[in-house]
Amino acid sequence: MSHSVNPGTAVNPQLAKLHPYPFEKLRQLFSGVTPNPDHRAISLGIGEPKHPTPAFILTALTHNVHGLANYPSTIGSDKLRTAIASWLERRYGVPALDPATQVLPVNGSREALFGIAHCVIDATGATEPPLVLCPNPFYQIYEGAAYLAGAEPYFVNSEPSRNFACDYSGVPDDVWARVQLLYLCSPGNPTGATLSLDDWRQLFALADRYNFVIAADECYSEIYHGSAPPLGALPW
Ligand SMILES: Cc1ncc(COP(=O)(O)O)c(C=O)c1O
Known about the structure:
Blueprint: H1 22-30, H2 55-63, H3 78-92, H4 99-102, H5 109-120, E1 131-136, H6 141-148, E2 152-159, E3 165-166, H7 173-176, E4 179-185, H8 197-210, E5 213-217
Helix pairs in contact: 5-6
This protein binds pyridoxal-5'-phosphate.
């Protein structure tokens, strides 16, 4: 099915608030720039894999390609949800999770990050738009989700003096009072900064006090130096 929008047709007015995707902005900034051939380029563009796909993944994919003929169920297979729950239990040392009610596979974390704002934000009857707190710099879907859900993003800057962690202690009380959703990204993109236990404690205490939801984007949780994996929102 395809839709075309006639001039004058009502569309969500929040769409006008969305910014161009950063990689599109970068592409335009790079056009006409000739890199110095004396230096090896370090791409700060879209984070495409730079290494070959591990053989076991290719094997699993090719052996299961026939499965693409079936639509997956929205909730995902029991086997997948059980495997995810077991991984979470091992990784975070949490008591047994219920794969039927506590795990929902998504088609990339971006889908969940976008959808959560629509589940959480309630702008009905508000005199001022609700706020979605985001780190800055940030993964752009946080901002788009906030606007399209009828909220406004409020950015908390990464602080060079804190090794690029955000300083939430500077957020005024009247801002916290309007926050309905807080996106956290630890390890952060693009800074790599991770939240300490004290940071997590402080933010959960604020969530209880001001009654907002924390969406913990931990898509880089398994990229770390050394033997201690970074803390996450789940107990550890
Ligand atoms: C911070 C962050 N969150 C989420 C995503 C989305 O990842 P995916 O939808 O591939 O899981 C990205 C991808 O670049 C990201 O950098």
